[in-house]
Design goal:
The protein is an alpha+beta fold. The protein has three helices and eleven strands; from the N terminus they run αβαββββαββββββ. The two termini are 40 Å apart.
Length: 220
């Protein structure tokens, strides 16, 4: 970053006011289809999937275009559609009973019938995925307010402070909702006797159609 001497003070003021986001401050919430796992789907399991999400990619978006060459002079790019980024990749830290992989397998089993390999109707197996960035705000000019969101089918209530706050609480600062999501791939987890034992990870790829912005300052 190149700054003139006159800009250094402004840079420090900006960083003090707005700080910066860290890559390890995030939250992922999975909303599976209605009826997923029946009575075995609990708020504890939903919370565990959120807490054990070790990494996730924040989805991108692209405006597709074509070159308009039937003009004089340099060509120009003309938008012709909207495409969204690659699949959502989430890596989960495995518990001893592999409940996280069981969760993903059960969702995938809603997509096809293992007896005859018939595929289910699309609307019967799609869900949503919420991805939030999280940070601390230390500003003094904007008052905080509490929002409540039901982030599981079991109705578990989560409370977050939004806006700037002075008590150092972690807050959601940005969020997207990936619509029509479903688990496309359950990745392989390596088991080995070589070297020191490591924590088992469960990688997964979720397909989705598009994403919407979530207003993190508005109560539902």
């Amino acid at each position: 970053m190149s700054l003139s001497r006159g800009s250094i003070k402004a840079f420090h003021a900006e960083m003090s006011r707005n700080a910066y986001l860290e890559t390890n401050k995030f939250e992922v919430i999975l909303y599976p289809p209605q009826g997923f796992m029946g009575p075995n789907y609990t708020s504890e399991l939903a919370s565990s999937m959120t807490l054990r999400a070790e990494s996730v990619n924040l989805a991108g978006r692209n405006i597709s275009s074509f070159e308009e060459s039937n003009i004089y002079g340099p060509v120009k790019q003309i938008p012709d559609g909207v495409t969204y980024g690659e699949d959502i990749s989430i890596t989960f830290v495995a518990s001893q009973n592999m409940a996280e992989r069981d969760y993903l397998e059960n969702w995938q089993q809603m997509i096809y019938d293992q007896g005859n390999w018939d595929l289910s109707y699309y609307n019967d197996f799609i869900g949503t995925i919420d991805i939030y960035t999280i940070s601390k705000h230390n500003g003094t000019n904007v008052s905080s307010k509490t929002i409540r969101t039901d982030d599981t089918q079991g109705g578990t209530e989560r409370i977050f402070e939004t806006g700037n706050n002075q008590n150092g609480d972690m807050v959601r600062t940005y969020g997207i909702r990936c619509q029509e999501a479903w688990p496309k791939t359950i990745g392989a987890s390596e088991l080995t006797n070589a070297g020191q034992a490591e924590v088992l990870k469960i990688p997964a790829q979720f397909a989705y159609r598009y994403w919407d912005r979530i207003d993190v300052t508005a109560a539902p």
